[in-house]
Every structure is written in C-alpha cells, then in structure tokens.
C-alpha cells in the first residue's frame, strides 16, 4: 500500500519555517502604522543586509566547493577515459597484428571465389583481333568497332592542339590589331583635340575682335547721343526764353480784360486768360450765399423737430418694455415658488422611502466580526 514512514526533509522544513518567520516579520512591519507611514527600521534593515551577505558568502563557498568537486571528478573521468582509450587501442593493435599474421584472406578455402585480382590473373577473353577463340558465339568481336581508336585520338589531340595554337596566334594578331587601332584612335583624338583648341582660340580671337568693334560702336553711339542731348537742351532753353518773352510782353501779364472775353457770348470767358470777377459778379455771389444759409437753417430746425419726436417715441417704448419685464419677473417668481414646493414634496417622499428601506428592508446590518476578517494577512 502507501509508504507513510517517509524521512523528514530538513531542508524543506527549514525553508518552510524561514518563510513563516518572514511572513510574521512582514505582518509586524506592514500592520505597524508608525513604521509604514513615518519610516523603516534601519537596524532591522542592516541586520537583513548582514544576513543576506552571510547567506551569499555561504552560497559562494558552497558553489566553489561544488565547482572544485566537479573539476576533480572531471579530471578523474578524463584520466579514466584516456586509460580506457589506451587499452582499447592496444587491444585493437594486437587484434590487427593477429589478423595480419594468422588470418590472411589468401589462406581461405573460398579465396578464389572473391579474389579482387581474379580477372587480372585470368587470361583475357580477347588477346588480339585474330584470336581463334573469338568466334561468332564468343560475343567479343563486332562489326563497326573502332580498332584504331588510339591513333585516332592521338591525331585528334594533335589537331586540337594545332587549332588551339592557331587560335592563340589569331588572338594575338587581333590584339595587336586592336592595339594599333587604339593607338590610331588616340592619335586621331589628340589631333581632334588640338583642332578643337585651335578653333576655340580662333573663336576667342574673333569674339574679342567683335567685342572691341561693339565697344567702339557703342562709344560712337554714346557720343552721338550726348551731342543730341546737348542740342535738345539748347533748343529747350531757347524755347523757354522765347516763351518768357512772350508772356512778359503779352496780354496775360499785362491784365488786359478784353483778352478774356469769349467769342461765344458776353457770359462766357476764356479761362486761361481770365484775371478775376467784377464787383457786380461778387455781389451776386454773396446774395446766393445768404439764400443758401437761410435754407440750411430751415432744414436744421426741421431735423431738430424730427429728433425730438424720435426721442419721445423711444421713451414710450422703454416704459412699455419695463412693464413687460416686470410681468415676466413676476411669472418667473411664481414658477420658482411652484418648483420649490414640488422639490419639498419629492424630498419628503424620498425621506419616507429611505426610512422604509432602513427600518423595513435593511434589517441585517454587518457586525464587527465581518470587518475583523480584513487585514489578517500581508498577501
């Protein structure tokens, strides 16, 4: 059946006890409000660090011991394996020596059946073309055989070698021809480059000559333009002096009123010769200005009357709007009062419902034992 008298695993028991002690220590640390909210116990942490270092040192020494053990076992295993390989090699050498001395294949009874040199030792089925053993039924000689194959292959090899040498000569000749063509091409390119340089130099000389001719032509045009400008300025100066003399001695500056009279009637004048209005014309203008001022005063009084009427209508509209706003405010207060009454009614109804729930429905409140089951573990 089942084996119940199992030995106690002290390592597992010590690990379980260590975890239990750590859990109790964790409970005291977590459920302690002062340590949890203010700080931690430095002495306990230092002790934990010291214990951790001791544990690490113990583990390091344990690992080093295991490593030394493993190295010693590896050396022993290597020595045993080398001795076993040496013994196996000696045994194989002795076995091979015994076989080479006392178990030669040629000493076997059936050696002639699987001798690899049997065909070499046996007489060939066909010694030459006139072998009397090669009859019709021997199947050793057939029509169309290439009996001169060695000579033919030798001739073919010599022919292929001659062809290869000829191809090499042709390739060398082609290479020399290509080199000569490349040399001629390079010479032609140099000649073309020299011709291009000569053409470029000639083009530059021609362009330089054209530029010099253009500069001379532009200079001549500039001189001609300057001369024309000087003549034009002299002509303008002469015209201005003539105009000044005509104005000074003409009817315009002498203020002759007859020169301003138009040929189309006495009520029309020539504007570029007119020197001013007469006293009668000035008096007529003053009368027209007085009539315009009176008309403007009448229009201003009418505008003032219209503005007063507009202000009266605006005041009446403002009083009507104030009355309407007061009516709206009274209706708003009535609505707010009705809403407050409705809210009080709903509040009383909700309070009655809560009283019903607390007194009739929720009759099983949780006890202290229900809350004591919390915060009993750190996990």
Automatic annotation (TrEMBL):
Keyword match Coiled coil: yes
Main localization of the protein described in the UniProt heading: cytoplasm
Top-level taxon of the source organism: Eukaryota
Pfam families linked: RIB43A
InterPro entries given in the database record: RIB43A
Residue stretches of biased makeup (Basic and acidic residues): 122-133, 161-180, 294-313
Disordered: annotated segments: 122-180, 289-317
Family: Belongs to the RIB43A family.
PANTHER family, A to Z: RE41410P, RIB43A-RELATED
Listed name of the protein: RIB43A-like with coiled-coils protein 2
Organism, as annotated: Elysia marginata
Lineage: Eukaryota, Metazoa, Spiralia, Lophotrochozoa, Mollusca
């Amino acid at each position: 059946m089942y084996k119940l008298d199992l030995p106690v695993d002290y390592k597992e028991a010590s690990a379980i006890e260590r975890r239990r002690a750590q859990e109790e220590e964790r409970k005291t640390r977590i459920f302690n409000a002062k340590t949890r909210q203010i700080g931690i116990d430095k002495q306990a942490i230092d002790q934990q660090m010291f214990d951790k270092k001791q544990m690490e040192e113990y583990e390091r020494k344990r690992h080093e011991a295991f490593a030394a053990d493993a190295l010693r076992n590896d050396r022993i295993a290597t020595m045993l394996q080398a001795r076993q390989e040496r013994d196996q090699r000696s045994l194989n050498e002795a076995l091979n020596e015994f076989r080479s001395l006392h178990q030669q294949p040629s000493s076997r009874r059936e050696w002639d059946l699987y001798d690899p040199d049997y065909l070499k030792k046996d007489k060939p089925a066909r010694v030459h073309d006139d072998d009397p053993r090669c009859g019709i039924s021997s199947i050793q000689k057939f029509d169309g055989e290439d009996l001169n194959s060695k000579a033919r292959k030798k001739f073919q090899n010599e022919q292929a070698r001659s062809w290869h040498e000829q191809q090499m000569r042709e390739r060398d000749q082609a290479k020399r021809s290509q080199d000569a063509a490349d040399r001629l091409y390079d010479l032609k390119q140099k000649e073309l480059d020299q011709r291009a340089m000569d053409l470029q130099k000639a083009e530059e000389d021609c362009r330089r000559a054209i530029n010099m001719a253009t500069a001379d032509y532009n200079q001549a045009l500039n001189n001609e333009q300057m001369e024309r400008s000087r003549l034009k300025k002299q002509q303008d100066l002469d015209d201005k002096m003539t105009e000044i003399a005509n104005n000074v001695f003409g009817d315009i500056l002498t203020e002759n009123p007859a020169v301003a009279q138009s040929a189309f009637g006495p009520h029309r004048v020539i504007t570029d010769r007119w020197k001013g209005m007469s006293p009668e014309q000035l008096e007529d203008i003053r009368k027209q200005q007085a009539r315009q001022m009176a008309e403007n005063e009448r229009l201003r009084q009418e505008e003032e009357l219209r503005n007063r009427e507009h202000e009266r209508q605006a005041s009446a509209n403002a009083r009507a709007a104030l009355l309407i706003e007061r009516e709206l405010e009274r209706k708003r207060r009535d609505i707010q009062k009705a809403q407050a009454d409705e809210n009080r009614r709903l509040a009383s109804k909700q309070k009655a419902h809560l009283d019903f729930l607390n007194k009739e429905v929720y009759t099983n409140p949780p006890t202290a034992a229900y809350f004591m089951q919390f915060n009993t573990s750190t996990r």
